[in-house]
């Protein structure tokens, strides 16, 4: 089948707006009829459909492999008020699965093109696109949605969304106000594997409760990369991390652009040279690109399955038609089709959702660097670049902050100072901010002898 | 147009080429799939085949598009042949012989069985799919599907530490752990460490903990007597558990070796069986009862030279073994007057898989129905097996009443008792001593044979991937009945 720029019949928004007979028959079955397995709160009604069509507001995070599928699934399930957030533009390599995009759309914002396609194809559907990062919005934006469904490719982003919804929770006299809960449906895929989960913030396990379920990122040790390569991947990382900054092949201050084929070509050639030095075989262009871009293989089918499962949950929750998934489904179709459905448990002392201030146990002579290391390396915290502040002598003082160069320079000496030297006291509260959470986390410093 | 060069195809398909390679992609692009019925489920399956680049597709669908079709279907059906599959079966059943795979969606039982018979006799894989309310169903019908590249998750390594081949033995001997300098000591591959300590370990009954302790004692000590930081030794200790597994052929591969096709090689024998027989010859004549060496080792702490040298020991042995197998392939083919076209590669020998599905006729016949599977699965009365029985029951209902139960609101209540009669007659006909709860009968009336989009889409993804497995002969298809329950988000696979 040739891929041309001619519009295909399936691309045309050829239907006129407005309803037609039987349009929602497949949905109404579940809204109008009583049944033995429905949710205890379910009441069959001819008005439920109107709620879905006119009132219910859904937010889709991501307009990529999962996002495209989610938008289609939701639009064909009666949802009309949908917002979609995605900060990316379309790449050719998306076209094997992100079916709302065509070759002519390459370079344009995913959110915009996805919204256009759905709105043109599903009469009455109003998808509002946001070509933005999730961090560009605050509580007032997120609060307007009934349900939020994520099709993200980043654990950091997931944790941020998780933290945002937790921050919206309202407690009165220690009791959670259920109307402040926004359900979060989260889907993830990788090759032939995927998972779908349902989170009721404040009630069920959150993303951080089960952080250990996420596989750690592969980062090769520096000594391997610098002097003892064994695999073709080590050769590529050498070129990316050590050779490029040294040789600046495209000029001073020009960083490696993983999407620039010329840059990748340079890395590829140099990686081959490095590999030849050590008699390592297997450096190919495809491998080089895969390492530099941290490419995860992806196909249409897995995304379709996981998005569909997520969309089914959105429908169940919005309509109260059935009891939602409780609460985690894992899928793998490498060998036959395998699923495992279980209830992920809340962690009693979860750093995000338990409301229990986390203790930090350190000796007063421990260096601040050790605290930073703990925050990044601890399996339940896994922070990326924590910024630590404390109240000292009545004033809010930044002890260390990495993300702003000038402040990093100024506070760097603090890393080698002991906690006692910095003036910190036993029982002192430390406020930690990090890209993994929209809210500052409070820790309590507990001195060991 | 040929504007689509190889380079741009590589770009577009990059993410999936990393899973099934260029050769898998080629199979996909040479395939011609037939989709019967372009309902929501059908078009979703097709979309998930078109996106990765299926070569060609033909839609057979005699229905006219209705308002409710447009409500759950993302595509307009415009490529369809306006004849129904029933007419084709009546007038031109050989129409289906041109296809790599036939996918039948939302087929009535009679059509399904007729088509099943035609395709079984023509040896064409048949994938039956249906969405019924919140239930998804797939049935794979293929006589024999062989897989060389099954790509198993988490396969054990093939290190031969219990029976090191000559070259490996010599290489291990070239190391003198006690006489080494500190740097070399800390950068010796753990495979060598375990092998060396195995030589010291004379007992044939390995107590893994004691063995690990022995290795731990080998860690260099500083002047003060504290152990140095030797990560390679820690790796050796960690890997003792799996490294000491005896080298042996899995029962699955053994079964394949003992298959009929492996014994009688003729000029008609498919390549897979010639290769397998050749591997079997190797096992008995050259490998001392073992498969050809796989040739790969995991990454491990070591300096480059030690690692690469060790890796090459395994690689070269694998190539040697592969060429012996290739010679067997050659002579087998010569004996039936054929020429060898494909080269053998050792790395998949331990992962060969064969999938054989029973025919629909066998599943549906009273004599050969899989009573045991059905009865034992029904021990969990709310598992997926009851959904299978309900699907069979609504098919009965359709045969009797020319419609499915509960399509219109007013029918739901009155159809419950009618459907119950169908359930009972089904259980009676097959002598199934099981109990189907009334709740499921009610629920299936409630569904009214609806095809909600999200369930169709789940099925669309699942079915498309199984189709891709059949076409590319990579990864392993299911055998043979798959049920998806969207209420509980659970699935099950049965061999019926």
From TrEMBL, chain A:
<dbReference type="InterPro" id="IPR033127">
    <property type="entry name" value="UBQ-activ_enz_E1_Cys_AS"/>
</dbReference>
<keyword id="KW-0833">Ubl conjugation pathway</keyword>
<dbReference type="InterPro" id="IPR035985">
    <property type="entry name" value="Ubiquitin-activating_enz"/>
</dbReference>
<feature type="region of interest" description="Disordered">
    <location>
        <begin position="1"/>
        <end position="20"/>
    </location>
</feature>
<dbReference type="InterPro" id="IPR023318">
    <property type="entry name" value="Ub_act_enz_dom_a_sf"/>
</dbReference>
<dbReference type="InterPro" id="IPR000594">
    <property type="entry name" value="ThiF_NAD_FAD-bd"/>
</dbReference>
<keyword id="KW-0436">Ligase</keyword>
<keyword id="KW-0067">ATP-binding</keyword>
<comment type="similarity">
    <text>Belongs to the ubiquitin-activating E1 family. UBA3 subfamily.</text>
</comment>
<dbReference type="Pfam" id="PF00899">
    <property type="entry name" value="ThiF"/>
</dbReference>
<dbReference type="InterPro" id="IPR045886">
    <property type="entry name" value="ThiF/MoeB/HesA"/>
</dbReference>
<comment type="pathway">
    <text>Protein modification; protein neddylation.</text>
</comment>
<dbReference type="InterPro" id="IPR030468">
    <property type="entry name" value="Uba3_N"/>
</dbReference>
<dbReference type="GO" id="GO:0019781">
    <property type="term" value="F:NEDD8 activating enzyme activity"/>
</dbReference>
<dbReference type="Pfam" id="PF08825">
    <property type="entry name" value="E2_bind"/>
</dbReference>
<dbReference type="GO" id="GO:0005634">
    <property type="term" value="C:nucleus"/>
</dbReference>
<dbReference type="GO" id="GO:0045116">
    <property type="term" value="P:protein neddylation"/>
</dbReference>
<dbReference type="GO" id="GO:0005524">
    <property type="term" value="F:ATP binding"/>
</dbReference>
<feature type="active site" description="Glycyl thioester intermediate">
    <location>
        <position position="223"/>
    </location>
</feature>
<protein>
    <recommendedName>
        <fullName>NEDD8-activating enzyme E1 catalytic subunit</fullName>
        <ecNumber>6.2.1.64</ecNumber>
    </recommendedName>
</protein>
<keyword id="KW-0547">Nucleotide-binding</keyword>
<feature type="domain" description="E2 binding">
    <location>
        <begin position="360"/>
        <end position="448"/>
    </location>
</feature>
Automatic annotation (TrEMBL), chain B:
<dbReference type="InterPro" id="IPR045886">
    <property type="entry name" value="ThiF/MoeB/HesA"/>
</dbReference>
<dbReference type="GO" id="GO:0045116">
    <property type="term" value="P:protein neddylation"/>
</dbReference>
<comment type="pathway">
    <text>Protein modification; protein neddylation.</text>
</comment>
<comment type="function">
    <text>Regulatory subunit of the dimeric UBA3-NAE1 E1 enzyme. E1 activates NEDD8 by first adenylating its C-terminal glycine residue with ATP, thereafter linking this residue to the side chain of the catalytic cysteine, yielding a NEDD8-UBA3 thioester and free AMP. E1 finally transfers NEDD8 to the catalytic cysteine of UBE2M.</text>
</comment>
<keyword id="KW-0833">Ubl conjugation pathway</keyword>
<dbReference type="GO" id="GO:0005737">
    <property type="term" value="C:cytoplasm"/>
</dbReference>
<dbReference type="GO" id="GO:0019781">
    <property type="term" value="F:NEDD8 activating enzyme activity"/>
</dbReference>
<dbReference type="InterPro" id="IPR030667">
    <property type="entry name" value="APP-BP1"/>
</dbReference>
<feature type="domain" description="THIF-type NAD/FAD binding fold">
    <location>
        <begin position="13"/>
        <end position="83"/>
    </location>
</feature>
<dbReference type="InterPro" id="IPR000594">
    <property type="entry name" value="ThiF_NAD_FAD-bd"/>
</dbReference>
<dbReference type="InterPro" id="IPR035985">
    <property type="entry name" value="Ubiquitin-activating_enz"/>
</dbReference>
<comment type="similarity">
    <text>Belongs to the ubiquitin-activating E1 family. ULA1 subfamily.</text>
</comment>
<protein>
    <recommendedName>
        <fullName>NEDD8-activating enzyme E1 regulatory subunit</fullName>
    </recommendedName>
</protein>
<dbReference type="Pfam" id="PF00899">
    <property type="entry name" value="ThiF"/>
</dbReference>
């Amino acid at each position: 089948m040739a891929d041309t720029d001619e519009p295909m019949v399936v691309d045309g928004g050829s239907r006129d707006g407005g309803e037609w007979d039987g349009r929602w028959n497949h949905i109404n079955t579940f809204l109008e009829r009583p049944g033995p397995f429905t949710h205890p709160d379910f009441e069959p009604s001819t008005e439920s459909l109107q709620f879905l069509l006119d009132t219910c507001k859904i937010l889709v995070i991501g307009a990529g492999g999962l996002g495209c599928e989610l938008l289609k699934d939701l639009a064909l399930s009666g949802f009309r008020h949908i917002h979609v957030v995605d900060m990316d533009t379309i790449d050719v390599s998306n076209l094997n699965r992100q079916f709302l995009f065509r070759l002519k759309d390459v370079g344009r914002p995913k959110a915009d093109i996805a919204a256009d396609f759905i709105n043109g194809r599903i009469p009455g559907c109003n998808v509002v696109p946001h070509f933005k990062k999730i961090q560009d919005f605050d509580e007032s934006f997120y609060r307007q949605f009934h349900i939020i469904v994520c099709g993200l490719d980043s654990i950091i982003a997931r944790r941020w969304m998780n933290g945002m919804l937790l921050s919206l929770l309202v407690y009165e006299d220690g009791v959670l106000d259920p109307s402040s809960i926004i359900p979060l449906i989260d889907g993830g895929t990788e090759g032939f594997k995927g998972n779908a989960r349902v989170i009721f913030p404040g009630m069920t396990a959150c993303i951080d409760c089960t952080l250990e379920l996420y596989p750690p990122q592969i980062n090769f040790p520096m000594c391997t990369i610098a002097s003892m390569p064994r695999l073709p991947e080590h050769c590529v990382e050498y070129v990316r991390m050590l050779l490029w900054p040294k040789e600046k092949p495209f000029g001073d201050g020009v960083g490696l652009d993983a999407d620039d084929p010329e840059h990748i070509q340079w890395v590829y050639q140099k990686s081959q040279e490095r590999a030849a030095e050590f008699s390592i075989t297997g450096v190919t262009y495809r491998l080089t690109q895969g390492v530099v871009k941290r490419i995860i293989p992806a196909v249409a089918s897995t995304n379709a399955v996981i998005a569909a499962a997520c969309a089914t949950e959105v429908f169940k929750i919005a309509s109260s038609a059935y009891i939602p998934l409780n609460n985690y489904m894992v899928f793998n179709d490498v060998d036959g089709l395998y699923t495992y459905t279980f209830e992920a448990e809340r962690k009693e002392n979860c750093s995000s959702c338990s409301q229990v201030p986390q203790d930090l146990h350190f000796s007063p002579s421990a260096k601040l660097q050790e605290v930073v290391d703990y925050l990044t390396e601890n399996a339940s915290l896994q922070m990326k670049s924590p910024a630590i502040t404390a109240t000292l002598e009545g004033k809010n003082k930044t002890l260390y902050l990495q993300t702003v160069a000038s402040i990093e320079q100024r506070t760097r000496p603090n890393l080698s100072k002991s906690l006692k030297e910095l003036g910190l006291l036993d029982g002192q509260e430390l406020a930690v901010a990090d890209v993994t959470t929209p809210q500052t986390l409070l820790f309590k410093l507990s001195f060991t002898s | 147009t040929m504007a689509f060069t190889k380079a741009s195809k590589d770009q577009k398909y990059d993410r999936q080429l990393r899973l099934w390679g260029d050769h898998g992609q080629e199979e996909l692009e040479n395939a011609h799939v037939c989709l019967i019925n372009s309902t929501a489920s059908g078009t979703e399956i097709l979309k998930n085949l078109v996106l990765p680049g299926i070569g060609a597709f033909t839609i057979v669908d005699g229905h006219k598009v209705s308002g409710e079709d447009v409500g759950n279907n993302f595509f307009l059906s415009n490529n369809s042949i306006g004849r129904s599959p029933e007419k084709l079966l009546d007038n031109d059943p050989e129409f289906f012989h041109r296809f790599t795979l036939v996918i039948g969606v939302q087929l009535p039982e009679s059509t399904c069985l007729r088509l099943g018979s035609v395709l079984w006799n023509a040896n064409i894989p048949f994938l039956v799919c249906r969405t019924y309310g919140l239930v998804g169903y797939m049935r794979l019908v293929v006589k024999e599907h062989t897989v060389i590249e099954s790509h198993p998750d988490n396969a054990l390594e093939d290190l031969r530490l219990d029976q090191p081949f000559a070259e490996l033995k010599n290489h291990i001997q070239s190391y003198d752990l006690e006489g080494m300098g500190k740097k070399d000591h800390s950068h010796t591959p753990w495979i060598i460490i375990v092998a060396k300590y195995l030589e010291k370990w004379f007992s044939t009954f390995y107590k893994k903990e004691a063995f690990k302790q022995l290795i731990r004692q080998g860690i260099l000590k500083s002047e003060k007597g504290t152990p140095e930081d030797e990560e390679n030794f820690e790796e050796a200790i960690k890997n003792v558990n799996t490294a000491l597994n005896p080298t042996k052929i899995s029962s699955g591969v053994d079964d394949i070796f003992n298959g009929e096709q492996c014994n009688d090689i003729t000029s008609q024998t498919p390549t897979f069986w010639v290769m397998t027989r050749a591997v079997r010859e190797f096992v008995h004549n050259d490998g001392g009862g073992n498969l050809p060496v796989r040739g790969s080792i995991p990454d491990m702490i070591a300096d480059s030279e030690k690692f690469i040298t060790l890796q090459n020991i395994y690689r070269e042995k694998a190539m040697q073994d592969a060429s012996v197998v290739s010679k067997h392939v050659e002579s087998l083919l010569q004996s039936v007057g054929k020429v060898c076209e494909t080269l053998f590669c050792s790395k998949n020998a331990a992962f060969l898989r064969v999938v054989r599905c029973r025919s629909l006729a066998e599943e549906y016949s009273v004599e050969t129905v899989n009573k045991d599977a059905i009865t034992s699965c029904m021990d969990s009365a709310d598992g997926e097996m009851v959904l299978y029985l309900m699907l069979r029951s609504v098919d009965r209902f359709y045969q009797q009443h020319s419609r499915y139960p509960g399509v219109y609101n007013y029918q739901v209540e009155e159809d419950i008792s009618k459907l119950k009669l169908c359930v009972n007659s089904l259980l009676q006909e097959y002598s199934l001593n099981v109990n189907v709860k009334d709740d499921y009968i009610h629920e299936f009336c409630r569904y009214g044979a609806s095809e909600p989009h999200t369930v169709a889409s789940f099925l669309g993804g699942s079915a498309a991937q199984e189709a891709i497995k059949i076409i590319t002969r990579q990864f392993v298809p299911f055998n043979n009945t798959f049920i998806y329950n969207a209420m509980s988000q659970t699935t099950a696979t049965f061999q019926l």
